[in-house]
Design a protein that fits this description.
Elements: E1 3-6, E2 16-21, E3 32-35, H1 47-58, E4 64-71, H2 78-95, E5 99-104, H3 107-117, E6 123-125, H4 132-140, E7 144-145, H5 153-158, H6 174-185, H7 189-204
Parallel strand pairs: 1-2, 2-3, 3-4, 4-5, 5-6, 6-7
């Protein structure tokens, strides 16, 4: 497991956490997936989907919930986004599954909810592009971060190795993302691969394939 967030099924099942989003009827066939309601797709009439998601999770078909979260630039009101998010936090806690978060200009809200809801499960903010100061603040609040092609180089260099997650979001080749990270962090590719695989396994509480 090297790619912690993509929307494409990898050639080798288990080498990526594939976000099927709201497509609960996707053919999973050995792949490791997360499912959930994206903030852009929240309508306020989400009970039907959330019930179906509950069943999907109860059958053990997903390793995580997501991507869910907040987007201040797109989607319905933040109030509606928060209602859907909190419902998914409840599912995450009930089934013991971590969450993959889409967060655009709403970090304060996520920090507040993590403080107030005190979840036992981990929340990973995908596609993090912030600088080192914001990174340290989010890590100190118990949040996890993953880095894709647009990552801030200083943050990617400075994040502790046991907190390192890489992703493509389905828009890059994971090998290119890994080569870049190994260069930025001055660690051999094979070592980086072991690190991110081990971190992904711990995050998902799941044994994953090493590519
Ligand atoms: Zn995505």
């Amino acid at each position: 497991m090297t790619d912690i967030h993509t929307h494409l099924f990898p050639e080798q099942p288990g080498s990526a956490l594939v976000c099927v989003g709201e497509n609960l009827s996707a053919s999973i066939q050995g792949h490791i997936v997360c499912a959930g309601l994206h903030p852009w797709n929240v309508t306020g009439k989400d009970d039907g989907f959330l019930s179906a998601l509950d069943v999907f999770l109860s059958e053990g078909r997903a390793a995580a919930i997501g991507e869910c979260g907040f987007d201040t630039l797109r989607g319905p009101s933040l109030k509606l986004q928060e209602l859907a998010f909190v419902r998914q936090v409840e599912l995450s806690e009930r089934y013991g599954l971590p969450m993959v978060l889409h967060v655009v200009r709403a970090f304060d809200r996520v920090i507040r909810l993590r403080r107030d809801l005190k979840p036992a499960q981990r929340w990973l903010i995908h596609g993090f592009r912030g600088g080192p100061e914001q990174m340290r603040q989010l890590l100190s609040k118990g949040l996890d971060l993953s880095f894709g092609p647009g990552a801030n180089v200083e943050s990617l260099r400075l994040i502790p190795s046991d907190c390192l997650f890489l992703e493509t979001d389905g828009k890059a080749d994971i090998h290119d993302v890994m080569v870049n990270a190994s260069t930025v962090r001055s660690v051999p590719y094979s070592q980086l691969e072991r690190t991110i695989t081990s971190n992904a396994e711990v995050f998902l509480k799941h044994s994953c394939t090493v590519q």
